[in-house]
Amino acid sequence: MASGGVVKHILLARFKEEVTPERLDELIRGYAALVGAVPSMKAFHWGTDVSIENMHQGFTHVFESTFESTGGVKEYIEHPAHVEFANQFLPVLEKALMIDYKPASVN
After folding, report:
1. Contact of 61 with 47, CB cutoff 8 Å
2. For residue 87, what pLDDT is reported?
3. Is 31 a catalytic residue?
4. Looking at residue 1, what is its pLDDT?
């Protein structure tokens, strides 16, 4: 797989019950702030599950980050701002699923 080209980093999350709405808001703002702190992180979007299919397996939130390349994802993972944020974010997760992918169109 080539390292160039846009990569989407998807995190599905279920937060621990004790996480207050205020703390959750603070964490989401911190996540979004990484766009300004990590040069390879080009965009950030998030949302909560609104599916009527009830196939979310307990995941309630989705976080999508856009990077310039797979190398950019590596830079993000190692960046001090991300490390500091992850040390706050990961402990409040009940469960998480992460996947990186290169968007492709059907030809």
Report:
1. yes
2. 97
3. no
4. 45
Catalytic residue among 9, 31, 61, 76: 76
Catalytic residue among 9, 61, 79, 82: 79
Sequential DSSP letters for 56-75: STT--EEEEEEEEEHHHHHH
Cβ pair 22, 101 in contact under 8 A:
no
Structural domain includes residue 7: no
Range(s) of the domain holding residue 33: 14-101
Whether 3 maps to a domain, the answer reads no
CATH of the domain at 81: 3.30.70.100
What are the pLDDT digits (tens) for 81-107?
999 999 999 999 999 999 999 999 887
Q: Is 9 a catalytic residue?
A: no
Tokens read off for 71: 């190398």
Q: Is the pTM of this model over 0.70?
A: yes
pLDDT at 22 over 60: yes
Overall domain count for the chain:
1
* Residue 21 domain flag: yes
**Mean of the per-residue pLDDT values of the chain:** 94
